[in-house]
């Protein structure tokens, strides 16, 4: 007798005392030690709740409550969703009875009078199935715990990383401003004593510090993007918001000779500050990434194919993006072009993607190299 099954909880339900006595003797002779019997089907509910059996040996034809009704009750109470197994023992094993019992949730059926060897094998098979399901459930529960632990660790690490980026970005701006300031003072005060090569070096240093300042600011913005909470969503007047964005970009637009057209836009669900930054990032990119000598033309409108939940399109006539790079450009610090020709840190699009997703929306892209790009802002449903 396999010790794994010797202590299995078994419930015998049969209205005939002779049958329950026979089954008790059989179980005892085969090493089973944990079994309960009843000749009154009305006691089944209480016994099941008290013992939570691994296996029920169930008669079909009984007064008061039939075996089929017990099976139906077990199913309604979700016991048949557990590892619990049920084997029906009946003298009536017609196709109709078999069909009714199996449809009601029985896992096996054996005709009375039964062969003890066959009964022993079937019981072991059902108990083994019960054991396997329990093992699987235990492993699944353990795996779920591990996943939850790892998830909590990742959330904590991510919070720590965002906090580190925030602190590092914030605290490094002041010494960087000091370096830039002293370099400029150096050039102003001792400019006549510094040769052209020295001035060139100072220019490179100041330019590098300016790029570093931009990178630090964008890292700070990226860390803040992780703190967006979708619970703070509100209705935003996109027309009004875009007016503010374009006012802030007025000098860039005028100096570059860009043309930005905005068609009437609907209200959208979101958070004003990050949505403003997303529009700003995309418009700046559209103006920046232009072929030599070409002036940017940017159109902002509603996607006519977006249906009841309007998406916003930002279309430009820029250099375009190859299809194989469409996903890559949203990765942080990803640059597709030389920084001397097209300035930037490679953070703007990753910030935009992160902000849109944190609000429950998304950002998409279509582009043809040499013809331009269209970015799609999908806002969360209202």
Structural commentary:
With 382 residues, this protein is an alpha/beta fold. The chain has three domains: 3-114, 3-Layer(aba) Sandwich (Rossmann fold); 151-225; 230-378, Histidine kinase-like ATPase, C-terminal domain (Heat Shock Protein 90). 51% of the residues lie in helices and 16% in strands. It contains eleven helices and twelve strands. It has helices spanning 3-6, 17-29, 44-51, 67-76, 95-104, 116-190, 196-225, 238-248, 250-256, 272-288, 348-358; strands at residues 10-13, 35-38, 55-59, 85-90, 108-111, 234-237, 259-262, 267-270, 297-302, 311-315, 362-368, 372-378. The strands form three sheets. It has a five-stranded parallel sheet, sandwiched between helices. The chain has a five-stranded mixed sheet with strand order 7-9-10-12-11, with helices on one face. Strands 6-8 form a two-stranded antiparallel sheet. Strand 4 (85-90), helix 5 (95-104) and strand 5 (108-111) form a beta-alpha-beta unit. Helix 8 packs across helix 10. The radius of gyration is 37 Å and the shape is elongated. The two termini are 64 Å apart. The model has no long low-confidence stretch (mean pLDDT 84).
Give me the Rg, rounded. 37 Å
Count of distinct structural domains: 3
CATH topology of the largest domain, by name, is: Heat Shock Protein 90
State the distance separating the first and last CA atoms. 64 Å
Binned, the helix content reads 40-55%
Quick summary:
By secondary structure, the protein is α/β, with parallel strands linked by helices. It is built from eleven helices and twelve strands. Strand 4 (85-90), helix 5 and strand 5 form a beta-alpha-beta unit.
């Amino acid at each position: 007798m396999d010790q794994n099954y010797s202590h299995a909880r078994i419930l015998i339900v049969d209205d005939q005392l002779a049958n329950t006595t026979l089954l008790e003797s059989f179980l005892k002779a085969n090493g089973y030690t944990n079994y309960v019997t009843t000749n009154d089907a009305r006691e089944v509910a209480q016994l099941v709740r008290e013992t939570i059996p691994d296996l029920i040996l169930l008669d079909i034809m009984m007064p008061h409550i039939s075996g089929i009704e017990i099976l139906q009750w077990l199913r309604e109470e979700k016991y048949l969703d557990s590892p619990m197994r049920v084997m029906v023992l009946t003298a009536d094993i017609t196709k109709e009875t078999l069909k009714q019992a199996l449809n009601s949730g029985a896992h096996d059926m054996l005709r009375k009078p039964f062969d003890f060897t066959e009964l022993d094998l079937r019981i072991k098979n059902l108990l083994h199935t019960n054991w396997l399901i329990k093992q699987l459930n235990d492993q699944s529960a353990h795996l779920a715990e591990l996943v939850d632990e790892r998830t909590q660790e990742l959330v904590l690490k991510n919070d720590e990383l965002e906090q580190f980026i925030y602190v590092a970005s914030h605290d490094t701006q002041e010494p960087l401003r000091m370096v830039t300031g002293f370099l400029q003072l150096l050039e102003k005060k001792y400019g006549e004593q510094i040769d052209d090569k020295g001035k060139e070096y100072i220019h490179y240093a100041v330019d590098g510090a300016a790029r570093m300042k931009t990178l630090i600011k964008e890292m700070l913005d990226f860390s803040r993007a992780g703190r967006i909470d979708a619970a703070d969503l509100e209705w935003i007047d996109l027309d009004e918001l875009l007016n503010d964005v374009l006012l802030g970009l007025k000098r860039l637009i005028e100096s570059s000779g860009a043309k930005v057209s905005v068609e009437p836009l609907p209200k959208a669900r979101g958070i004003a500050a990050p949505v403003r930054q997303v529009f700003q990032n995309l418009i700046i990119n559209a103006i920046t990434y232009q072929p030599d000598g070409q002036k940017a033309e940017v159109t902002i409108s509603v996607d006519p194919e977006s249906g009841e939940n309007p998406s916003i399109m930002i279309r430009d006539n820029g250099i375009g993006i190859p299809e194989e790079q469409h996903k890559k450009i949203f990765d942080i610090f990803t640059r597709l072009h030389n920084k001397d020709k097209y300035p930037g840190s490679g953070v703007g699009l990753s910030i935009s993607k992160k902000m849109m997703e944190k609000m429950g929306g998304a950002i998409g892209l279509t582009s043809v190299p040499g013809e331009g790009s269209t970015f799609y802002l999908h806002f969360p449903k209202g």
